[in-house]
Amino acid sequence: MSFMKQLAIIGPTASGKSDLALALAQEHNALILSIDSLSIYREIDIASAKPSYEELLAVDHFGINTLAPNENANVFTFIDEYHRAHAAATQQGKNLILVGGSSFYLKSMVEGLSTLPEISEEIRLQTALMLNDLEEAHRFLSNIDPLTMAKITPNDRYRIEKMLHIALQTSMAPSQWFHDHPPQPILHNCPILSIDIARSFLRERIALRTQKMISARIIDEVAELERLYGREPNSMKAIGIIETLEFLDGKITKQKLLEEISTHTAQLAKRQQTFNNNQFDVQIRAGVEELYTIATTILTHP
Predict the structure, then answer these.
(1) What is the pLDDT of residue 138?
(2) Contacts of 122 by beta carbon, 8 Å cutoff, 6+ apart
(3) Which of 73, 90, 185, 282 could bond 112 through an S-S bridge, CB–CB 3.0 to 4.6 Å?
(4) Would you say the C-alpha torsion 196, 81, 76, 266 has a positive or negative sign?
(5) Residue 129 carries which DSSP code?
């Protein structure tokens, strides 16, 4: 009897993660879970640089085209997708490859999250009313749990909502709840492979990808997204989209659009490299070709 094997591929944007994952999945009978904060949304295809229609047909993907652009993705979205992907891989007798640039979500799976209490409909309604004034909600929680709230900004609606749910449902300070319910890791036996790429080469890849986005009509895509969903959703504040909206507003030229997307993507890539290097204690760092060989050994070793 064969057992499912899994591994994760991390690296900065445009470093070749998706191509590596796709090649491995096709060669070694695997499903793919995308851990990417933009590919999770339907209709955001060019700005997210998600796999092509043909690539999505070639290998079953999870974590792609799951939410509408006006919905909000969070760590629990990706945990749910992981459970779906893991169950499918187990049922189908396949391996599982996790890949993506949003390594915060992977870190949350590795370290685990505290379980949250069941929230009653009454508490959800009370919370919704309090969220009409975020600053006041933040002050309310700060009086209950100043240490926790010192780490949460007054405009962080998502985290304030979670803290309100805990405080109102349990009559406990959130820090006490988390102390009593320590995190339980979700991801076990999953080697982490980190793409090592020279920064100069990465900048070239980013510039090329940005040019492809422009050629693939990212401007039309963003204009249609704005028509359908406006500018308020979190997805509309992503790199590639926010600059294109500036172009549509007449604030920048098309050449400046290309330059700004490239620059901001390179800055993101640098942050991703720093995060990956500092937040994962155990990882295998190498170039793409060497990682392919290492991953093959992991996925085929009895």
Answers:
(1) 97
(2) none
(3) 185
(4) positive
(5) H
- Please state the pTM of the whole predicted model: 0.84
The one-letter amino acid at 226 = E
Residues 257 and 246: beta-carbon distance below 8 Å: yes
Would you tell me which CATH number, out of the four given (1.10.760, 1.10.20, 2.40.160, 1.10.10), belongs to the domain 121-180? 1.10.20
* Helix or strand (DSSP H, E) at 66: none
CA distance 49 to 210: 9
List residues bridging with 192 in a β-sheet. Answer: 8
Calculate helix-pair angle for 103-111, 75-92, nearest 10 degrees. Answer: 70
Of the chain, the percentage scoring pLDDT greater than 90 comes to 90
- Which CATH number, 1.20.1290.10, 2.40.128.120, 3.40.50.300, 3.40.190.10, labels domain 6-112+186-300? 3.40.50.300
Q: Break the chain into its structural domains and give their ranges.
A: 6-112+186-300, 121-180
Q: For 166, how many CA atoms within 13 A lie in the half-sphere containing its CB?
A: 22
Rounded mean pLDDT, 12-41:
97
Which uninterrupted H or E stretch holds 193? strand 192-195
pLDDT category, 1, cuts 50, 70, 90? very low
Give yes or no for a contact between 184 and 109, defined as CB atoms under 8 angstroms apart. Answer: no
- Separation between Cα atoms, residue 73 and residue 41, nearest integer Å: 8
Fill in the DSSP letter of residue 285. E
* CB neighbour list of residue 275: distance below 8 Å, 6 or more residues apart: 103, 104
Mean per-residue pLDDT, 223-237: 97
With cut-offs at 50, 70 and 90, classify the pLDDT of residue 2.
low
Residue 206 has pLDDT above 50, yes or no: yes
- Summarize the confidence of residues 124-149 as an average pLDDT: 96
Check residue 152 and give left, alpha or beta (phi > 0: left; psi -120 to 50: alpha). Answer: beta
Q: Which helix (H) or strand (E) holds 30?
A: strand 30-34
